[in-house]
Amino acid sequence: MVDAKRLEILTESAKYDVSCSSSGSRRSNVAGGLGNASFGGICHSFTPDGRCISLLKILMSNECAYDCEYCPNRRSADVPRARISPDEICELVINFYKRNYIEGLFLSSAVCDTPDKTMEMLYETVSKLRRVYNFNGYIHLKGIPHADESIVMRAAKLVDRMSYNVELPSERSLKLLAPQKTKNSLLLPMKNLRNAIEDEKQNGKRRKILPAGQTTQMIVGASPETDGQILKLTEALYRNMNLKRVYYSSYIPVVRSAKLPAVGAGLLREHRLYQADWLIRFYGFDVDEICPADENLSAEYDPKCAWAIRNMQLFPVEINSAPLEMLLRVPGIGAKSAYRIIEARRFTALDFDNLAKMHIVLKRARHFITCKGKFYGLDGEEQVKCALMLANGDETNEQLTMFSDRENAVAAITGEI
Question: Would you identify the CATH topology of the domain 4-284?
Answer without folding.
Answer: TIM Barrel (3.20.20)
